[in-house]
Amino acid sequence: MIDRQSVFEMHRMKNDGFSIRKICNTLGISPKTVVKYLNDPNPRRKIVKRVSKLNPFKDEIARLLKVDPKVSAVVIKQRIDKLGFDGEITIIRNYLRKIRNDFVYRQPFIRFESLPGKQIQIDWGHFGSLTYGNANRKLYAMAVTESYSRMLYLEFTHSQKQETLHQCLLNAFRFMGGAPKEIVVDNMLTAVTERQGRLIRFNDAFLDFLRIFKIFPVACNVRAPHEKGKVERSIRYVRQNFWPLRSFKNLFDVQRQVIKWLDNVANVRVHQTTGQSPKERFAGVLMAKLPGLLPDCRETCRVLVHKDFAVRFDSNAYTAPPWTIGKHITLKADQSTVTLYYHQKKVAAHNRCWEKKKRIEIPAHNEQVKKLQNRLWQDKHVAAFSSMGQPAVDFLHCLVLARQPIKKSIARLLSLKDEYGSFSLLYALEKAMEFKAYGADYVENILYQEMTPKNHHLPVKLKNDELNRIRLTEPCLADYDAYIIKRKEKND
Question: In what order do the strands lie in the sheet with 328-333?
Answer without folding.
Answer: 299-304, 328-333, 337-342, 345-351
